Amino acid sequence: MNHVRNRGRTQVKTEKRKRTRPISYVAKSPKETVDIARLFLDKLLDNAKKSSDALVVGLSGDLGAGKTTFVQTVAKHLGIKSKISSPTFVIIKKHKIKNKITSKKYKFMFHLDAYRLKNEKELLALGWEEIIENPEHIVFVEWPKNVKKAMPKTARFIRISHAKKENERVLYLQ
Fold this sequence. Notes:
The chain is an alpha/beta fold. 22% of the residues lie in helices and 27% in strands. The protein is built from 4 helices and 9 strands, in the order βββαβαββααβββ. The strands form 2 sheets. Strands 3-9-8-4-7-6-5 form a 7-stranded mixed β-sheet, covered by helices on one side. A two-stranded antiparallel ribbon has the order 1-2. The longest helix is centred in the first third of the chain and has 18 residues, at 30-47. The model is unreliable at 1-17 (pLDDT under 50).
């Protein structure tokens, strides 16, 4: 795994989106995917402490690549006990964050699936601006390319691909 040591903690390298190339990881098992998701979330939370808007992450990948699984891992790390499933048909789901440390800043996680949205106008009709303007929100958007004009400039992105072996995934973090 590509990682750096910072004050004794392992963290994912992240920088401003326009200046960096994605960092890639090969997860050879679901457990490794969980570890990568935790590292990524920890780094995001550390970097977002000063933000006055929601923390927004776009998740790209083929059907079945692991986008929802990634969000399930993040939700567990945030202390969310409710079942996390793909919001394909309801478009957006809101979950209360229960992790005592994280919930001091973030109160809700939104999980949005833009697969069925035709354009950004449909997203705006769901209250998108109110969601992303609230600094107490963490937002995960599956299929962000379908609403790319509505994604904030501060959004982070993850692309998940199938690797050569059945349970392997390649995660590109940006």
